[in-house]
Amino acid sequence: MFETILVPTDLQEKSQAALNIAVRMALREPSRIWMLHVIETIDDATEGEFDAFYEKLRIRALKKMDEMIALHADKPIHIDGKIVYGKRVQKIVDFAREKDVDLIILSSHRIDWANPAEGWATISYRVAILAPCHVMMVK
After folding, report:
1. Where are the domains of the chain?
2. Angle formed by the axes of helices 123-130 and 88-98, to 10°?
């Protein structure tokens, strides 16, 4: 049903839950899993101004993604990791289109019932609205 699953990650522990669900789904029905981290770029920066900074972020992100993926090394699935640069929502949606993703699984925040209107502009909500495919939000 879902041949290609995308798990966008901010490299926080809550993202591991989304990856775990993707893995469980892929174990039931063969699926390709992509794990995507977007390094947010700074607007109006001059060419090369933050290259060293972005490279440090990339190295750190690769290490963390490898650790997250390694937790599933004993399973008969393959998870591809990818790091891109830009604006998170746009890059996640673009990646889903480019890779013909069937399902995006991403972590989300819990609703604060004392102030339920707050947080509607989160990355997960915007991805869910703009995605070209099904989206599962994990809390």
Report:
1. 4-138
2. 40
Polymer length in residues for the chain:
139
Among candidate residues 41, 33, 35, the one with its CA nearest the CA of residue 4: 33
CA distance 17 to 7: 10
Question: In this predicted structure, what is the pLDDT of residue 81?
Answer: 96
Q: Tell me, yes or no, if the pTM score tops 0.85.
A: yes
Cβ atoms of residues 134 and 103 within 8 Å: yes
124 touches 24 (CB < 8 A) = no
Q: Exposed, middle or buried: residue 46 (CB in 10 Å: 0-12, 13-18, 19+)?
A: exposed
Provide CATH code, domain 4-138: 3.40.50.620
Identify the three-state secondary structure at position 21: helix
**pLDDT of 110 above 90:** no
Cβ neighbourhood burial of 12 (10 Å; 0-12, 13-18, 19+): exposed
Which range is most confident: 39-53, 88-102, 103-117? 88-102
